[in-house]
Amino acid sequence: MCNIPSDCPSVPGDAPHSMTDRNPTDPQPKSGDFFFPPPLPGSAEAVETLCTSGQVRIERIASHGHASPPGFWYDQTEDEWVMLLQGAAVLGFDDGRELALHPGTWVALPAHCRHRVVATAPDTLWLAVFAPADADPAP
Predict the structure, then answer these.
(1) 61-72: per-residue pLDDT in tens?
(2) What domains does the chain contain, in order, with CATH numbers?
């Protein structure tokens, strides 16, 4: 159990946070509300960095019916782990497979796994974690 002292600040929506910028003589937890305030619909997905530590980055991504443009593929140099927390989405892969996601489902995308967002429902929220690709992947 984690007991946070009552004098520790807890400010919902107080992001982004860099764990590398913390003061080692006065360590304070950082917190926020993943679902509030809700990101407003826009012409592109809304990406908010919630926390960084070293080479690891955690993001909240909000999609409102967005999809990758025709012919566009993500081909990232980082590993990505993503979980759908709200809404629905379909990811497509360059081998023709598609993966339907609903709240609670997740997928681990190794670096250079070409993928795209085929479709999202309104008010879709993703939790994404990015980390350096393994320099020596297991066989």
Answers:
(1) 999 999 999 999
(2) 42-132 (2.60.120.10)
